[in-house]
Structures are given as structure tokens and as C-alpha cells.
């Protein structure tokens, strides 16, 4: 089974945004929304163009950096799917994330389950 079974290319599902320019340059984000079961979730990729890069290369440099960020984000998602044994399918309007069917798992012996870790209730991370 393929990792990505979508009606359109993966990058067609990306959403783009730009933050206000600051002293270090311009910052951008690429967001990939997807459904996992009934929950809408997302992956984000941040990239930036320094004021020097923008001054030297102009709009062409920004577009080149944008395309590089899109390519890197796409590769990141593809690797994430492989390592997590998941796949993207459907894609109307957002892709759905599902678990890949494991091949040959029935022949494997049952692995012992890890004991549940009991965390102290009186301690919390945010206060």
C-alpha cells in the first residue's frame, strides 16, 4: 500500500502565511491540515528570508526559498509517514491519516506489553 493516495499532489493541500516583517527579515509558515479519525490536526513548517537575502535576491530569492521550503516540507511529511507506518488517503477536502495494514504481523510472536507508568497526581508541568 502506498503512503500517499490522494487525488491531487501533496503540496496542493498546503496553506501559506507570512508574519509581519521584523528586524531579522520575513518569516513564513506552511501548514498541512489533515483529519486523524474525527479530529482535524496539522503539521507546520516555518522558514524565513533575512533582510540581506531579500535585498540581494529580491522577489526571485523569496520565491526560490519558498520552493525549497515546500520541497523540504513534502519530504518531511513523506518520511514521517514511513516512520510512523501511516498513510494519507481521501483528500476531500482534507487528507485523512490512517494506519497502514501491517504485513506478516500474524506470524510474529506476541510482544510483552510495557507496564503502565503511574505519574504522581500532585505534580503538574504547568504549575
How would you explain this protein's 3D organization?
This protein is 27% helix and 30% strand. The radius of gyration is 20 Å and the shape is elongated. The termini are far apart. By secondary structure, it is an alpha/beta fold.
Task: Report helical residue fraction.
Answer: 25-40%
Summarize model confidence as the mean pLDDT. 84
Biggest beta sheet summary:
6 strands, mixed
Strand elements, count: 6
Summarize, please.
The chain contains 1 helix and 6 strands; from the N terminus they run E-E-E-E-H-E-E.
Which terms would index this structure?
127 residues; alpha/beta; six-stranded mixed β-sheet; 1 helix
Secondary structure elements and pairings:
Blueprint: E1 4-5, E2 15-18, E3 26-36, E4 39-49, H1 51-84, E5 86-90, E6 95-99
Parallel strand pairs: 1-5, 3-6
Antiparallel strand pairs: 2-3, 3-4, 5-6
Amino acid at each position: 500500500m502506498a503512503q500517499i493516495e490522494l487525488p491531487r499532489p501533496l503540496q496542493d493541500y498546503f496553506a501559506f502565511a507570512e508574519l509581519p516583517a521584523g528586524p531579522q527579515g520575513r518569516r513564513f509558515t506552511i501548514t498541512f491540515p489533515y483529519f486523524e479519525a474525527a479530529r482535524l490536526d496539522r503539521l507546520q513548517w516555518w522558514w524565513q528570508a533575512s533582510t540581506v537575502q531579500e535585498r540581494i535576491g529580491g522577489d526571485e530569492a523569496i520565491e526560490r526559498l519558498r520552493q525549497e521550503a515546500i520541497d523540504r516540507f513534502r519530504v518531511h511529511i513523506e518520511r514521517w509517514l514511513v516512520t510512523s507506518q501511516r498513510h494519507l488517503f481521501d483528500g476531500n477536502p482534507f487528507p485523512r491519516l490512517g494506519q497502514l495494514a501491517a504485513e506478516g504481523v500474524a506470524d510474529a510472536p506476541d510482544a510483552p506489553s510495557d507496564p503502565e507508568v503511574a505519574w504522581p497526581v500532585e505534580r503538574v508541568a504547568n504549575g
